[in-house]
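User: Hi! I have a protein structure encoded as tokens and I'd like to know what sequence might fold into it. I'm fairly new to this, so please keep things simple.
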């Protein structure tokens, strides 16, 4: 029973001491430790009574009392303590000695002046608090009394010799009695030899500054040698170590002098640190401005300070301060210093919460900077918490958000599940490519589809790719047509020989006479081969040409196609005429590709040029999706997607409902004003930069086509009665109608048929239920 009351209280201590990395700090031994229940790291100062003298034990007990009662942000924080007959334990925040910290920084290139300026600012502020507010003298200031926490902030400790400066008697021995080596840090005047009460402490402050920049102080006379002390600090340092104690400044006055314009402590780092200490009482406008400026300064701040000081304030500002999107840029900059585990714990939960925000500025910044954090997101969080919010951007009225949402799919696609990728995402892509009024967004949708094609399942690729890229080749925006061509090249490995011959090559052949030179060039590289390295970056696949599929699979004994540099066979009608009136526009060699793939006679018709120019504006007829494919018997096959978004594309990629980026008048459907615009004049710009309703674009397009119709000819395939071949839209059929008119008539019939089917489906489903969402 008596043994129960005689239990060692250390066993019930809530903290465990770790034996490694123990350091000597005066009469104390500094050890690393952790809380037994949570594993939270701490520092433990240990003093063994049996190993010390009576004076040392007296100092240890005095330090225990002072550390427990003195509270200040720049004084070592007391967490817990234990005093027994055998030992004393003081538990504080995790810290290391200043000497060890500076040694570690020296191995990395040395501590920066910014870090030292803030560290000295903190020590002087703590000393001012003791002298001016608590009326105490430290009497033990030196390298051994300064500690550094995880954020790199300096803390004042070593409170063993603290005494009152109001004349109260004390029985504590001076530092040199305990350690004779400390005598060189004593001021030259005798105790009570004149001067103010703080003169001894500010002299030791000068010794501390000397040692921070120059290392261990060998003797008091060395203080006259400035060494590496910065020039900005020299005049104020000299005041501290002046022989006359009456001219030594009060710690508060010294701090004020160093913070004056041009002073050592007047810099962006100190300003930012002071703002963070008072951020809770700052106005919202001041916080907004601070976080905007913080991003520019973070690169020069110490890494540990960013992780342990700036990051918690950023997270607090977002969760409780309504800081909004302004914290994102500095947040992601600080995130670069975190390990993968720390990123998951501290930043990912905040990012997931941000995606549910309705703030447009927040959403667009998240999309723009997704590359910085996508690797830390797991698939479950992407599919259940992030993607459902991101898809709202596809239907946002702001073009910039729609554009960034499309681009973000390049990063999200590898993490999406089957339903989100092959159904939900494809539905939104189909709507954007068919209905979006911004050409660059339609172009980026096509580019993105080409890049994420490897992640689609085989069935969806077969249903979507050819139809989607065929649709793009009929877009009025030149860059979209070029993207469609490059999409075929980038995904060539997914097409069979039959698909390449019957669906892809006929589509590409019609583009060999495209009004835009960039589109023609891309078609020639795709169809006849070329340098893949000169293509758009996302389309570089190492493929030489689509026709190589046909060449490799040609039956034995079949006639090989002519070499690329072989002479072009002439048609029976003789060589094609050229227009010499315009010297700057030379005859395009695209007809070589057509003749090589379709061995038939080529003729040129200037009337066909005018006819095709007017067809550009009426050729962009649209449905909404990519689910309408043909069976072998020519009947349309349905897919699960048909229930949600209907049959949208014909076999060749043409669309069943008319679409135009801007409302067109009756005259504009027969004039080239809303036709395809040359990329040399329009270029690919941000979606927000385009004004599709302005007159400027129309006049530029009109001038382009009026010039083009006089300087360029179109290839027309003549039809022979005894052979089947691909024919041009402007050839005439036995019924007397031109091919273009016949095609237009078929499209109209097809459109009416689709409308009838949709009406039947709608009638069968009945009226929408309350709360149901109507899909386009």
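Assistant: Happy to help. Inverse folding works backwards from shape to sequence: for each of the 776 positions I chose a residue that suits the local structure. Here it is:
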């Amino acid at each position: 029973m008596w043994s129960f009351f005689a239990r060692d209280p250390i066993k019930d201590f809530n903290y465990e001491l770790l034996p490694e990395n123990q350091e000597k700090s005066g009469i104390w031994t500094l050890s690393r430790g952790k809380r037994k229940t949570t594993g939270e790291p701490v520092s433990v100062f240990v003093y063994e009574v049996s190993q010390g003298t009576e004076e040392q034990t007296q100092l240890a007990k005095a330090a225990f009392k002072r550390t427990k009662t003195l509270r200040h942000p720049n004084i070592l924080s007391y967490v817990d303590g234990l005093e027994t007959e055998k030992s004393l334990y003081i538990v504080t925040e995790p810290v290391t000695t200043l000497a060890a910290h500076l040694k570690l920084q020296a191995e990395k290139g040395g501590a920066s002046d910014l870090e030292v300026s803030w560290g000295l600012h903190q020590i002087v502020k703590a000393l001012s608090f003791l002298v001016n507010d608590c009326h105490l003298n430290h009497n033990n200031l030196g390298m051994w009394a300064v500690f550094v926490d995880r954020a790199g902030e300096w803390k004042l400790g070593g409170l063993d010799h603290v005494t009152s400066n109001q004349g109260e008697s004390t029985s504590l021995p001076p530092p040199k009695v305990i350690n004779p080596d400390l005598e060189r840090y004593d001021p030259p005047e005798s105790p009570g030899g004149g001067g103010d009460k703080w003169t001894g402490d500010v002299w030791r402050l000068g010794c501390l500054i000397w040692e921070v920049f120059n290392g261990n102080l060998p003797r008091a006379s060395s203080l006259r040698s400035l060494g590496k002390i910065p020039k900005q600090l020299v005049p104020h340092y000299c005041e501290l170590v002046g022989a006359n104690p009456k001219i030594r400044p009060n710690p508060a006055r010294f701090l004020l002098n160093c913070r004056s314009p041009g002073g050592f402590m007047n810099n962006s780092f100190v300003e930012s640190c002071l703002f963070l200490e008072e951020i809770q009482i700052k106005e919202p406008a001041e916080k907004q401005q601070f976080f905007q400026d913080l991003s520019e300064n973070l690169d020069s701040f110490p890494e540990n300070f960013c992780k342990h000081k700036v990051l918690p304030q950023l997270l607090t500002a977002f969760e409780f301060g309504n800081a909004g999107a302004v914290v994102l840029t500095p947040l992601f900059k600080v995130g670069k210093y975190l390990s993968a585990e720390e990123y998951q714990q501290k930043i990912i939960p905040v990012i997931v919460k941000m995606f549910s925000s309705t703030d447009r500025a927040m959403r667009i910044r998240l999309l723009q900077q997704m590359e910085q954090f996508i690797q830390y997101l797991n698939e479950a969080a992407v599919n259940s918490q992030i993607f459902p919010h991101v898809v709202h951007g596809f239907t946002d009225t702001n073009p910039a958000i729609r554009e960034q949402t499309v681009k973000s799919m390049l990063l999200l696609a590898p993490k999406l599940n089957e339903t989100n990728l092959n159904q939900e995402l494809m539905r939104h892509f189909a709507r954007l490519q068919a209905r979006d009024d911004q050409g660059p967004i339609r172009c980026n949708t096509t580019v993105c589809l080409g890049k994420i094609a490897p992640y689609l399942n085989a069935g969806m690729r077969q249903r979507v790719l050819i139809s989607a890229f065929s649709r793009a080749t009929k877009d009025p925006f030149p860059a979209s047509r070029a993207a469609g061509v490059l999409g075929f090249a980038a995904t060539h490995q997914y097409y069979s020989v039959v698909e390449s011959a019957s669906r892809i090559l006929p589509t590409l052949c019609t583009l060999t006479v495209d009004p835009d030179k960039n589109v023609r060039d891309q078609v020639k590289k795709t169809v006849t081969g070329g340098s893949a390295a000169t293509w758009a970056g996302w389309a570089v696949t190492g493929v030489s040409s689509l026709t190589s599929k046909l060449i490799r699979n040609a039956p034995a004994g079949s006639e090989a196609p002519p070499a690329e540099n072989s002479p072009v066979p002439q048609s029976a009608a003789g060589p094609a005429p050229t227009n010499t009136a315009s010297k700057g526009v030379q005859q395009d060699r695209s007809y070589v590709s057509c003749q090589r793939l379709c061995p038939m006679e080529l003729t040129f018709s200037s009337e066909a040029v005018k006819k095709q120019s007017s067809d550009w504006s009426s050729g962009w007829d649209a449905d909404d999706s990519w689910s309408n494919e043909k069976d072998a018997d020519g009947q349309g096959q349905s897919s699960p997607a048909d229930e949600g978004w209907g049959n949208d594309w014909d076999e060749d990629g043409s669309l069943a409902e008319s679409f135009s980026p801007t409302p067109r008048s009756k005259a504009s459907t027969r004039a080239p004003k809303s036709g395809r615009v040359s990329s040399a004049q329009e270029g690919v710009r941000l979606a927000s930069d385009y004004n599709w309703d302005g007159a400027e674009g129309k006049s530029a397009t009109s001038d382009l086509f009026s010039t083009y119709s006089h300087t360029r000819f179109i290839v027309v395939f003549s039809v022979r009665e005894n052979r089947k071949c691909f024919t041009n839209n402007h050839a005439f059929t036995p019924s007397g109608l031109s091919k273009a008119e016949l095609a237009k008539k078929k499209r109209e019939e097809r459109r009416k048929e689709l409308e009838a089917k949709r009406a039947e489906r709608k009638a069968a489903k009945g009226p929408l239920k309350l709360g149901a969402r109507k899909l386009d």
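A useful reference point when you look it over: Residues 739-765 form the longest helix (27 residues). Feel free to ask if any position seems puzzling.
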